[in-house]
Amino acid sequence: GFENKDDSTGHDSLISTLKEVHPLAPMPLTMQPAQRNELVASRVILDRSTGICPVTNAHQRLILLEPEQRKQLHDELLELSREQYANYTRDESKNSGERAAQELRKFADWLDTREGEPYTAIVDGANVAYYMQTFD
Fold this sequence. Notes:
- By secondary structure, this protein is mainly α.
- Helix content is 33%, strand content 7%.
- The chain has helices at residues 67-89, 98-113, 125-130, and strands at 2-6, 12-16.
- A two-stranded antiparallel ribbon has the order 1-2.
């Protein structure tokens, strides 16, 4: 991120070593420890047993939800999907958001029942389509 450089007066000054990256450039996987005061933007694989980041050595806290907490989170996400759908469509009818909740349930069921390796990321196509759009 930044380097210390001696200027002509003998004082240290910070010089940026940051380089612009295209917003759609791939994010590299890094396992090398970062230098002191180094800014790193990369993917990492956390140690599942310790939660320690190999780049920053920061300890990430694992949050385990009890079954009742998972149910509450699930129910609140469904309710949020209903509200947001109703707000987006400006449909004030009683069951306007039920389709959104139904689609969210279908997606969650599919994630739970599909075979193969687990996903590490899910990309929201609608947000990708609007990324960097200007509506001026």
